[in-house]
Amino acid sequence: MAPNLFGSSTSLYLETSDQEKSATEKASIQPKYEWDIVWRNVIAFVYLHFGALYALYLVFTTIKLETTLWMLFLGSIAGFGITAGAHRLWAHRTYKAKWPMRFILMIMQTIALQNDIYEWSRDHRVHHKFTDTDADPHNANRGFFFSHMGWLLLRKHPDVIKKGATVDMTDLERDPIVFWQRKLYLLLVTLFCFVLPVWVPCYFWNETLFNSWNTTLLRYAVSLNATWLVNSAAHIWGYKPYDKNIGPTENKSVAIITLGEGWHNYHHVFPWDYKAAEFGNYNMNITTALIDFCALLGLAYDMKTVSVDVIKRRAKRTGDGTRYSEDEDSQS
Ligand code: ST9
Ligand code: ZN
Ligand code: ZN
């Protein structure tokens, strides 16, 4: 039997419904999930990760300091393109942004190469609507590896496409910046994720093409794995103060790594909050600081939040008791 990389356990992979078993009483066990492996993606991700590991070695040997700093700068702005842009602005509409901010966020999101804004947001809305079911593109019940990167190596489960069609995307269809990014995505990604990032170090501080290319692989691999941790680690490990009946968790390490996106139990309960967390403490939620700063400049506005009262009531009703427990309330 093939190793179960895409299921949480052998039993899940082999799971058949009781009805099927008793009806046929056959010894043969049907796999629950069919793997239609996309080899192009497997090869690309294997190359990416080996290249990134080699680049890590180069960072400590021949890569120039300026190139490493350039990689960190690009990684951060790509990260904000995902957090403040694709996630909090476009997928959830937690705030509004004037067109210059939307344009800059679109370029930043393009540097991240995580699919165009429309596709990213569609998968993410479907993830929120059908969390941890077969219709969730990165269903965490299929195990860490599947929800982390395995889902990008297989054709989607038919439920994702069938039930995904029920998610309203008309707001993004009306946004010309989203529309044009989708139309020109291949060109934009080639330019902003690869050509410019590799060219700048070679031109401005005489970095070698080889080193510059490998640094780009490292930046991309790190930012992908950081993002994927929200779908994997923050659906497995951590407290559930707001709803103990769902998979997503509060995960501080993931929050720090992902610029503030690890407060995932809160985020799944209150997805419209622009902070994507109960608290706006900037040190563990730097994306909130960025949106607040843009609001000061008049670029971001209409930020949505949730009142403490609503949060408390929900936490008491469905939380795991790690915040706003009945005891805590009776003491106060
Ligand atoms: C990547 C995305 O890595 C990561 C997203 C992570 C999200 C995390 C969220 C957490 C919060 C934010 C945290 C940020 C932290 C940042 C920190 C940074 C420091 N609904 O997809 P196709 C239909 S991408 C409705 O081809 P296949 C639709 O009609 C990495 N319908 O399915 C579609 O056609 P069209 C780079 C849907 O053939 C058609 O089906 N990119 C939905 O099964 C076909 O869709 C890659 O590696 C839906 N949800 O292929 C590429 N989905 O689009 C990966 C589909 O024309 N992608 N339909 O409308 C692929 O190669 C393929 O999509 C596939 C599936 C092989 C995975
Ligand atoms: Zn979300
Ligand atoms: Zn989630």
Keywords:
single chain, 332 residues, mainly alpha, 2 domains, two-stranded antiparallel ribbon, 17 helices, 1% strand, disordered N terminus, binds stearoyl-coenzyme A, binds zinc ion
Number of helices: 17
Unreliable stretches? 1-16
Shape annotation: globular
Oligomeric state as shown: single chain
- Average pLDDT score: 91
Q: Sketch the topology as an H/E string, one letter per element.
A: HHHHEHHHHHHHHHHHEHH
Structural class per helix/strand content? mainly alpha
Strand arrangement across the biggest beta sheet: 1-2
Instruction: Give the tally of β-strands.
Output: 2
Report on the structure:
With 332 residues, the protein is mainly alpha-helical. The protein has helices at residues 10-14, 18-24, 39-59, 65-91, 99-111, 117-129, 144-148, 158-164, 170-173, 176-183, 185-205, 209-231, 252-257, 264-269, 286-296, 308-318, 326-331, and strands at residues 96-97, 300-301. The protein is built from 17 helices and 2 strands. The chain has 2 domains: 1-33, no CATH class; 34-331, no CATH class. Strands 1-2 form a two-stranded antiparallel sheet. Helix 4 packs parallel to helix 12. The chain is 58% helix and 1% strand. The structure holds stearoyl-coenzyme A (ST9) and zinc ion (2 copies). Residues 38, 41, 79, 82-83, 87, 113-115, 119, 122-124, 126, 137, 152, 155-156, 160-161, 164-165, 223-224, 226-227, 230-231, 258-259, 261 line the site of stearoyl-coenzyme A.
